[in-house]
Design brief:
Number of strands: 6
Order of helices and strands: HEEHEHHEEEHH
Structural class: alpha/beta
Number of helices: 6
Distance between the termini: 22 Å
Length: about 180
């Protein structure tokens, strides 16, 4: 066996971590604070609030309780946090304590609107509310050119049409947390 002798503490730590993660995912509905997604396509300190709202909707569909946007925005203003695609662990823990959430989702989005070549790409990180450390992350991208339907039926007409599909395919947080180490 691999974990004999001096490796026994490593085995116990691994098993304990595994049990905590399994019981964590099996609990009741978790509360999530979604920070406004940075809009990298606009440059500067732009936020993409419509995309952020779609992220909240997808997470709510997965059974998560969502911290009201007004509470999140109030926290950001009170703590003078401008860049929302990232939050340090100290502020993450403070946000969770003030909003009573379990997880925080931060991320960025890039959108390019063109007639035939529109595209959307995003990245996200899920932070633990107790430690403020990343639990899981991911990304996704989709373009109009890559969404060709069978016989040309039901093809998207703009990036608004591909956003929902992109989020549902790539922001499966429940499944992601079940796979997290």
């Amino acid at each position: 066996m691999i974990f004999r002798g001096k490796h026994r503490p490593v085995r116990l730590l691994f098993l304990t971590t595994l049990l905590v993660l399994l019981s964590w995912g099996a609990g009741l509905a978790r509360t999530v604070a979604v920070l406004p997604f940075d809009d990298l396509s606009a440059g500067g300190n732009a936020l993409n609030l419509p995309f952020t709202e779609e992220v909240r909707e997808v997470l709510a569909e997965q059974g998560f309780e969502i911290v009201p946007p007004a509470k999140v925005e109030s926290f950001l203003a009170e703590n003078r946090l401008r860049a929302t695609g990232y939050i340090d662990s100290l502020h993450a823990v403070k946000l969770c304590a003030e909003t009573e959430c379990d997880l925080i989702v931060v991320g960025s989005v890039t959108e390019k609107e063109c007639d035939k070549e529109g595209a959307v790409g995003f990245t996200f990180t899920i932070l633990d509310g107790i430690t403020g450390k990343p639990v899981f992350g991911g990304n996704g991208a989709m373009s109009l050119g890559g969404c060709i339907g069978v016989l040309g039926l039901r093809e998207p007409e703009g990036i608004g049409d591909i956003r929902a599909t992109l989020l549902r395919e790539n922001l499966s947080v429940s499944k992601s947390l079940a796979k997290a180490p």
